[in-house]
Every structure is written in structure tokens, then in C-alpha cells.
Design a protein that fits this description.
60% of the residues lie in helices and 5% in strands. With 266 residues, it is mainly alpha-helical. Strands 1-2 form a two-stranded antiparallel sheet. Helix 3 runs antiparallel to helix 4. The radius of gyration is 23 Å and the shape is elongated.
Length: 266
């Protein structure tokens, strides 16, 4: 039996668009093991958690936690709870939930986050073990790349910068198209190169990350500008690259403001 709903527990308020039919059909199928009313309630909180994950992670976590309390034996629910906990930095909780999700579903897609949780709680050696023992044939390219990034981070945690660089050296570094994982891989590689003092190579990979980062996942533009001795100035919807050391540079926005003030005085 699922956990009974406590009369003392108040459910987080559901947004109006948290509708059952918006939940992925595969997850709705998993919820069929529950009574329909409970399945619908859990589905709505899962939808809310998914919608809020990026814009309000703490609220997303509350919805996922509520769903987990109502349906702890459903793999998709444990996954949602784990991802939400991971997003707000609750590493131990996320690790527990994601491990449970893996046991229930038999899927390995959670391994990059599981490994990163090990880093989060101060066990980089364990993170490396997970990354190196992962069944790569059961992971897609994005998941394999993410594992490499986590392994690289674990090496850095251990003070092994050269090893961190080696972890990222893979065929995907030659990718030229805007794959979903490309920006993060190029950025991670550039970041290690920069820390190693290999600025020319770092500049190349920050530039490549910037070129394929269509979703704004990284601050590659800012890192590239810093290496070039420039700064990025936002002017309305445009971006201006200026010489950070040039005392004569005038921000176009400030210049416009000056003209407006002069016009008002006339």
C-alpha cells in the first residue's frame, strides 16, 4: 500500500495548468497501479514539478516530494523526486531517490546524476567508480558525455587537473553541430584548459561552446570575452563587446540617456 495521506500535511498549491493529460503517457501508464483518484493527484503534482523545475526549483521540489509521499513505489515518481532534490542541492536525498528509481525501473539513465551526487557529498572517488563502471552501451550520447563531465569534475575535486582534462578527451570533442550536449562538453574542456594555463586552447573551446550554446546553458561568451580582455555590455536587446581597459569607451545606453537629458533641458 502507498503511504496514507496525513491530515496534517498540506499539499502545495497546484497551478491551473497542472493537468493530468499533460503528463507523459508512459508515466501515466506507471501510475495505473494506483487508485484513479490518487493517480490523478500524483500526476498533477508531477506536471507542476516539471513545469517549475527551472523557474522555481524549490516549489518544484515541494510538488515532487508530495508526489513521492503519495506514490513511493512508482519509479517515475522516485525519479522526479530525485531530480528535484538534485536541482536544489539536496545531494544525499537525491542520491537515495535516484538509486531507488534505478532499482525500480532498471534504467541507467540516472547514473550521471547519481555520480554527481557522490561528488556533492564529498566522495569524488566513488563518483569516478560509477562513471568508469557505467554500462555505456545502455546510455545515449548525451548521458555518456554527462558522465565524462562528472568524472572530470571529480578529478578536479581531487586536485588532478591533467586527469580532469583526459576524462573529457573523447570523439565528441570533434563535433561541429549544435548537439544538445555539445556546449557543456566544450565549456568543461575549455574550463580545465584555462585552469591549466593553456589560454589559446581554452579560447578555442570557449568559442566553440559559445557557437553551439543556443539555450544559454553556459557563460561561454563571458569567459571568452575575459580571455580576450573585453567585457560584454548589454544595450537594450543587443550585446556590445568593448575593451574593458579602454577608458574612452562610452556605453551607447549612457550616451542615449545624455541626449535625452539635453533634449529635455531645451
Amino acid at each position: 500500500m502507498e503511504e496514507p495521506e496525513s491530515s496534517k500535511e498540506v499539499a502545495p498549491e497546484l497551478p491551473e495548468n497542472a493537468l493530468v493529460h499533460r503528463l507523459d503517457q508512459e508515466i501515466r501508464n506507471e501510475l495505473r497501479t494506483l487508485p484513479k483518484s490518487l493517480a490523478d493527484l500524483v500526476a498533477k503534482h508531477l506536471v507542476a514539478a516539471g513545469d517549475l523545475l527551472n523557474q522555481d526549483p524549490e516549489r518544484a521540489y515541494q510538488h515532487a516530494l508530495y508526489a513521492r509521499r503519495r506514490a513511493s513505489r512508482v519509479g517515475a515518481v522516485r525519479e522526479a523526486a530525485g531530480v528535484a532534490a538534485y536541482t536544489v542541492g539536496k545531494w544525499q536525498e537525491a542520491l537515495s531517490e535516484l538509486r531507488a528509481a534505478r532499482r525500480i525501473t532498471g534504467q541507467d539513465t540516472y547514473l550521471p546524476m547519481i555520480a554527481d551526487c557522490e561528488r556533492g557529498i564529498g566522495r569524488p572517488e566513488r563518483a569516478l567508480e560509477i562513471a568508469h563502471e557505467a554500462p555505456l552501451d545502455r546510455l545515449d550520447t548525451a548521458e555518456q558525455v554527462e558522465l565524462r563531465i562528472v568524472a572530470s569534475g571529480a578529478r578536479r575535486d581531487m586536485g588532478d587537473l591533467q586527469g580532469a582534462l583526459v576524462e573529457l578527451q573523447c570523439p565528441q570533442l570533434k563535433e561541429r553541430r549544435a548537439r544538445p550536449w555539445a556546449a557543456r562538453l566544450f565549456y568543461a574542456y575549455a574550463d580545465v584548459l584555462a585552469e591549466l594555463g593553456r589560454k589559446e586552447e581554452a579560447r578555442e573551446y570557449f568559442a566553440r561552446a559559445s557557437a553551439v550554446d543556443q539555450e544559454g546553458l553556459t557563460d561561454a561568451d563571458e569567459r571568452l570575452a575575459a580571455l580576450e580582455g573585453l567585457e560584454i555590455v548589454d544595450v537594450d536587446d543587443d550585446v556590445v563587446w568593448s575593451d574593458a581597459e579602454d577608458p574612452d569607451f562610452d556605453d551607447p545606453a549612457e550616451a542615449d540617456d545624455g541626449r535625452d537629458d539635453a533634449a529635455e533641458k531645451e
